[in-house]
């Protein structure tokens, strides 16, 4: 084995020992892990993440489901998104989801044993009358359907977040999406600072935070680690990892797919950066092989959004139950 490979294996081994001893890895170490490029070093990273997961992560697999509360006509120019009004994607558009439909979905998900139901709204922020309608719906779900609630309604201020809290919603979702150094090349209508400000206000009120991003949008591996490091400021209890689904009509429509090996390595790197935080499969995982999904679960993924997603199709609950059992989790 050459000197370079030996150095990489030593970096991984030392980082693993520090994590298992309860230490939070510094940025220099995390970037050194992201720079590992030999097959042996990458395999050591995944195996190390498996050890971290088996040491710190409970065997209870966390499930959640989402309904698109408001679709399309979004003012923001996120270059990956089917719902942006800046692009012609043919996505469904409506102001507020039908009340009875959302209630049926929530009740059905509850009956399947899914742990959480979330309403996700397009646009910079769901506010005013639309926010009141969403809050009323989520209050009914929390009180009558036996399932926890979550919301992802954009860049809300403190008063708007308080209205949501008073409706019984105690988890707020706001993805950072990508590294600060890459964000400006994908979005011009808002910033990561805007997102972190909303997250900070939500934490002040008492919300648990769910925040992650999308991989495979042309970012480097170091930028994925930059996202993982920046997420420490958000202090999430859950980090959803989306894999880009290129949407026809968006500027990222022709983006080459990120490899399964790179996705697995990303999961491992996030587990080193966040040893005890929930890592959640979100959009895009349907293209992964069963073996890759299983290994990703063993290396850190201990939650998932299940069922249909926003503008793409997700996995079925039955399939996820089987995967969880095979990976050693209780759904």
Using the alpha-carbon principal axes, give the shape: globular
Biggest sheet, spatial arrangement of strands:
3-2-1-9-8-7-6
Q: Tally of extended strands? A: 9
The percentage of residues in β strands lies in 5-15%
Radius of gyration: 19 Å
Instruction: Describe the largest sheet.
Output: 7 strands, parallel
Going by helix content, strand content and strand pairing, the class is alpha/beta
Parts with pLDDT < 50 across at least 5 consecutive residues: 309-313
The helical percent reads 40-55%
Distance between the termini: 42 Å
* Discrete helix count: 12
Average pLDDT, rounded to a whole number, is: 94
How would you characterize the overall build of this protein?
This protein is of the alpha/beta class and 331 residues long. The protein is 45% helix and 13% strand. It has twelve helices and nine strands. It has helices at residues 3-20, 27-34, 39-56, 99-111, 129-144, 158-166, 180-183, 192-205, 221-234, 260-273, 290-298, 317-327, and strands at 62-70, 116-121, 148-152, 171-173, 208-210, 213-215, 238-243, 278-281, 301-305. The strands form two sheets. It has a seven-stranded parallel sheet with strand order 3-2-1-9-8-7-6. A two-stranded parallel sheet has the order 4-5. Helix 1 (3-20) packs parallel to helix 3 and helix 2 (27-34) runs antiparallel to helix 9 (221-234). The longest helix is centred in the N-terminal third of the chain and has 18 residues, at 3-20. The termini are far apart. Mean pLDDT is 94; it is low at 309-313.
């Amino acid at each position: 084995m050459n000197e370079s490979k030996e150095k990489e294996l030593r970096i991984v081994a030392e980082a693993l020992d520090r994590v298992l001893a309860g230490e939070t890895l510094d940025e220099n170490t995390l970037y050194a892990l992201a720079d590992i490029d030999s097959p042996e070093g990458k395999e050591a990273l995944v195996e190390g993440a498996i050890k971290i997961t088996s040491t710190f992560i409970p065997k209870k697999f966390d499930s959640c489901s989402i309904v698109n509360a408001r679709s399309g006509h979004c003012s923001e120019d996120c270059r990956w998104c089917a719902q942006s009004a800046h692009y012609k994607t043919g996505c469904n558009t409506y102001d507020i989801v039908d009340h009875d439909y959302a209630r049926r979905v929530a009740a059905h998900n509850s009956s399947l044993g899914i742990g959480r139901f979330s309403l996700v709204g397009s646009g910079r922020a769901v506010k005013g009358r639309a926010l009141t309608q969403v809050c009323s719906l989520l209050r009914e779900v929390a009180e009558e359907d036996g399932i926890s609630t979550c919301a992802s309604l954009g860049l809300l201020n403190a008063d708007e977040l308080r209205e949501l809290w008073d409706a019984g919603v105690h988890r707020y979702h706001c993805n950072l999406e990508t590294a600060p150094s890459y964000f400006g090349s994908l979005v011009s209508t808002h910033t990561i600072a805007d997102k972190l400000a909303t997250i900070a206000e939500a934490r002040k009120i008492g919300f648990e935070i769910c925040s992650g991003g999308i991989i495979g949008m042309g970012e480097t591996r170091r930028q994925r680690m930059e996202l993982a490091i920046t997420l420490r400021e958000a202090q999430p209890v859950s980090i959803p990892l989306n894999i880009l689904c290129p949407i026809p009509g968006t500027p990222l429509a022709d983006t080459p797919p990120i490899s399964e090996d790179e996705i697995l390595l990303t999961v491992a790197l996030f587990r080193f950066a966040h040893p005890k935080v929930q890592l959640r499969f979100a959009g895009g995982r349907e293209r992964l092989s069963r073996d890759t999904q299983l290994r990703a679960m063993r290396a850190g993924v201990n939650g998932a959004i299940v069922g249909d997603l926003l503008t793409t199709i997700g996995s079925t609950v039955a399939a996820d139950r089987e995967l969880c059992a095979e990976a050693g989790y209780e759904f």
